[in-house]
Each structure stands twice: as structure tokens, then as C-alpha cells.
From TrEMBL:
The keyword Thylakoid does not apply. Transmembrane segments: none annotated. This is MBL fold hydrolase. It comes from the Bacteria. It comes from Candidatus Yanofskybacteria bacterium RIFCSPLOWO2_01_FULL_43_22. Residues 13-230 form the Metallo-beta-lactamase domain. Gene3D superfamilies: 3.40.50.10890, Ribonuclease Z/Hydroxyacylglutathione hydrolase-like (3.60.15.10). Residues 264-389 form the Beta-Casp domain. The keyword Hydrolase applies. GO terms for molecular function: hydrolase activity; RNA endonuclease activity. Keywords: Hydrolase. InterPro entries: Beta_Casp (IPR022712), MBL (IPR050698), Metallo-B-lactamas (IPR001279), RibonucZ/Hydroxyglut_hydro (IPR036866), RMMBL (IPR011108).
Length: 476
């Protein structure tokens, strides 16, 4: 069994792992590189393997850095099966067309061909198949996969690949072959390799917590916050409330760069509670994002993924994503009209790292206003505009213009949808309790973060924890 790390190695984005067992080839995630000056070139590079030989792609969740290169994989010859949860696929069906529009625009500006076409996007979606958590998927003779709840965003999963230890699969399963009950074909000599995808940060307003496992042979674990600990969850709501009140008292504009998926829906849930309880003043709130508007509808559709408390609210008729004063803006004209609404007001817009999207127009207008504030509620990757603002740069460039940063700059780490160092360690410790764990591979983090977590794992468990280099392969 061979595992190769083609993305997400010593970097946060671009998750792409190839697992070869016998003559079966399985990809875990096919994400875009984001946030650095080299990202575009990396995305345009040909895949360093033949996509036509890949049998299955398991997508852990719908974020672009995990699913964004799926159409490119199809473009280069992939015709296997794409497997993800039903909710994740619904989100991907909304997010990828939006991503394509941005890709076309950027390609035109750069004078190059788009990364992929609408035909590629539609083609790969036709290969996609939704599954439920804990449903077993046969992918080869004696080889199966199970998706478990990762608690990161709606429909996110960790991928559990189960393989016979002494008998590599001799032929491939039909891409349509699935079974819902164990057939005991693996016997006792079974190994399991877990790809965590992105683990969540429980408890969250909307989702159930991620699943703990105790029978791992190998683990591939994320490390976005592998060197840090989040603020207390109660504190994050206090910070949100405080920043809103203080900005509104100064008749300022509160800008919140937010990922259209999960973060925006969590934020709306929190704002709904704060407004309804009278803890913050009733001011206009704009969700200036067509994608966030569309994705919020997917969240409404898949309320069965919510935790018990939130599911109960939905069942009793509470529209958790709506409150007086909230307006979703779809069109460019509606977005421009936000400028005509005098402060105080709150603007939630993408992208979450200020690397594009409508938030840039608002930042160009209000970053220089000392009465206004910008609040980051998500991870800001190194090199992104959001990270530069967060790092207190006095001046940034937006649309080629120099813009002074005079507004208040705040961040709430507790809003991260990623597990922090302590949570990641606890998850690995649980995975090792069965006594089978041989190696841990630490990925999807900046290099320092991954190395820090790897050292912590080695000290705690006396197990090899490896931070792979891009393109590095391991025989398991």
C-alpha cells in the first residue's frame, strides 16, 4: 500500500492524497491551492499522476481547498466515481459554478485559458454519488470505505479506508457496487487508515461534534491550528457582541469577511440570538454574497445534519437564518445600494480571507475610516490580504489602489471551524487506544503548525508523526 501527498503537505490548502492498494487507486480530496503568490501556478500544473487511472475520489467536504480542482481532474481524464455525503455534494453543486465564474474572470485578466470549463464541471458532477454517514462503500475486493462525521461544516466527513492486511485486493469493484451491511469479508486481519479532512471545533451552533475512533492503523490529520488553542466559546460571543456595540456607538461600519459556507450561517445564527435577546442594537445587516445566499438555502434543506438543539428550533418553526433588518443581496446593483444606507450597519461578505469577492469593495471604502471596524472570524492564510490586515499592516493594495488601514482590526479565533491543538491531540490519542496505530501523517497546516503538532504527538504517544513534503510517498 502506497500513500503519496500531492497537496496539503506543509501548506494549508490544495489537499490531494493518492492511496494505491494493489491495482486500486483512490484519491482523498482534490482541492485548489489558495492564498499564496504561487497558488495560481500550482493549480494550473498538470496532476503528477494519470487521472484516468484513478478509480475513486472521496471528498471530505465542499470547501474549495478540498474540492475545487475536481473539474480539472475530469478535464485531464478522470472517469471514476466521486463519493461524498449528500449535503457536501449539494454544497459543491452550488459552490463550483460560482468558483468557475471567478476562474474565468481571473483567466481573462491574466490572458490565459480558464483552469476548467463548464463542460468539465458538469461532467465531474455526473460522476458524483452521495452517501450517508456510516454507510459502507465497496471499492475493491476486500476493500471498503466509510464516511464519519467530521463536524467541520455541513456534510463534512473523515474518510475511513478499510483494507485486508495480508491480501491486497486483486480486482476493482464496480463503481456502482455498494453495500449497507458488513459482509465480514475482511475477517480479523483488517487495517484502517483515517483521513480526517478538516476536524471541527465543537461545540458549534449548528452541527454535531466530530466522531472519535479507536481502531486506526494509520492517520492523516489536519493541523491548521496545530500550534494554537482557541478562545473559550462563550468568549467569542462576548467579543462579537462587544465589537458590534462599540462600532455601532461610533456610527461606524462593521465589515466581516466571511466564508460563504458554514461561517456565514453560524454568524447569522449568533446574530439572530443576539438581536432576539436585545443584547445588540437593531441595525441593518447585509449578507452581500450571492453564493452565501444560495448556500444558506442548502443549509435549510439539510437540517437533519444539525445538532439536537438547533434541529429542535427548526422543527418548532424558528427561521434561524433570518431576523428583522437582515437583507441578502444577490445582484451587483443591490450590492452597490448598500453604500446608500448610512452607518451604523453590518456587512458580511466574501471572501473570508479578503482574497476576492465583494468584501474588497467595502474594505476599499471603509478600511480608512477610524470609526469603522473589520472583524475576522476565520483562518487567514499567510500571504492573503486578510492576513496582512490582521498583521497590522498600515497600508494595503486593493484593486491596485493603496488603502490606509485606520479602522479597528479584530479577530475571533473561537469562530474557527478547525479543531485546535488540544482537540487534535485528543483525537489522535483516542485513535491509538486500539493499539494498532503505526504512523501519523500531519498535513493541512502551515509548516510550523504541522511540525509543532507532530512533535506533540510523538511525545504523547511515542508513535512516529511525520510531516510529509509535497510529492513524498510512503509504503504502508
Amino acid at each position: 500500500m502506497k500513500l503519496t501527498f500531492y497537496g496539503g503537505a506543509r501548506q494549508v490548502t490544495g489537499a490531494n492524497y493518492l492511496l494505491e492498494i494493489g491495482n486500486i487507486k483512490v484519491l482523498i480530496d482534490c482541492g485548489m491551492f489558495q492564498g499564496s503568490r504561487y497558488s495560481e501556478d500550482l493549480n494550473y500544473e498538470k496532476f503528477p499522476y494519470d487521472p484516468a487511472e484513478v478509480d475513486f475520489v472521496f471528498i471530505t467536504h465542499s470547501h474549495t481547498d478540498h474540492a475545487g480542482r475536481l473539474p480539472k481532474l475530469y478535464k485531464e481524464g478522470f472517469r471514476g466515481k466521486v463519493i461524498a455525503t449528500n449535503a457536501a455534494l449539494d454544497l459543491i453543486r452550488k459552490a463550483l459554478p460560482d468558483n468557475l465564474n471567478l476562474i474565468k474572470q481571473e483567466a481573462e485578466e491574466a490572458g490565459r485559458e480558464p483552469l476548467f470549463s463548464l463542460k468539465d464541471l458538469e461532467g465531474v458532477l455526473e460522476l458524483a454519488r452521495g452517501v450517508d454517514y456510516e454507510e459502507e462503500v465497496e471499492i475493491g475486493d476486500g476493500l471498503k470505505a466509510v464516511l464519519h462525521d467530521a463536524g467541520h461544516i455541513l456534510g463534512s466527513s473523515m474518510v475511513d479506508i478499510q483494507y485486508p492486511i495480508n491480501n491486497p485486493p486483486s480486482h476493482k469493484a464496480s463503481v456502482d457496487a455498494r453495500f449497507s451491511n458488513p459482509l465480514n469479508i475482511l475477517g480479523e486481519k483488517t487495517g484502517k487508515i483515517y483521513f480526517t479532512g478538516d476536524l471541527g471545533n465543537p461545540p458549534t451552533p449548528l452541527l454535531k461534534p466530530y466522531k472519535f475512533v479507536d481502531d486506526a492503523s494509520y492517520v492523516v490529520i489536519e493541523s491548521a491550528y496545530g500550534s494554537r488553542t482557541h478562545e473559550d466559546k462563550a468568549e467569542r460571543k462576548n467579543i462579537l457582541q462587544k465589537v458590534i456595540i462599540e462600532t455601532m456607538q461610533r456610527s461606524g461600519v462593521l465589515m466581516i469577511p466571511s466564508f460563504a459556507m458554514e461561517r456565514t450561517q453560524e454568524l447569522l445564527y449568533e446574530l439572530n440570538n443576539l438581536f432576539n435577546s436585545g443584547k445588540i442594537p437593531k441595525v441593518p445587516v447585509f449578507v452581500d454574497s450571492p453564493l452565501a445566499t444560495n448556500l444558506t438555502e442548502v443549509y435549510r434543506k439539510h437540517s437533519d445534519y444539525f445538532n439536537k438543539e438547533t434541529a429542535y428550533l427548526v422543527e418548532t418553526g424558528d427561521d434561524i437564518f433570518n431576523f428583522p433588518g437582515l437583507k441578502f443581496t444577490r445582484t451587483a446593483e443591490e450590492s452597490k445600494q448598500i453604500n446608500n444606507v448610512p452607518p451604523p450597519k453590518i456587512i458580511i461578505a466574501g471572501s473570508g480571507m479578503s482574497t476576492g469577492g465583494r468584501i474588497l469593495h467595502h474594505e476599499r471604502r471603509y478600511l480608512q475610516d477610524p470609526n469603522s471596524a473589520i472583524l475576522f472570524i476565520g483562518y487567514q492564510v499567510k500571504g492573503s490580504l486578510g492576513r496582512r490586515i490582521l498583521d497590522k499592516e498600515k497600508e494595503v493594495k486593493i484593486f491596485g489602489e493603496k488603502v490606509s488601514v485606520n479602522c479597528r482590526v479584530e479577530a475571533i479565533g473561537g469562530y474557527s471551524a478547525h479543531a485546535d491543538q488540544q482537540m487534535l491531540l485528543e483525537w489522535v490519542k483516542a485513535a491509538a487506544t486500539g493499539g494498532k496505530l503505526k504512523k501519523v501523517f500531519v498535513v493541512q497546516g502551515e509548516e510550523d503548525s504541522s511540525l509543532t503538532l507532530a512533535r506533540k504527538i510523538e511525545r504523547a504517544l511515542e508513535i512516529d508523526a511525520i510531516v510529509p513534503k509535497p510529492g513524498e510517498s510512503f509504503e504502508l
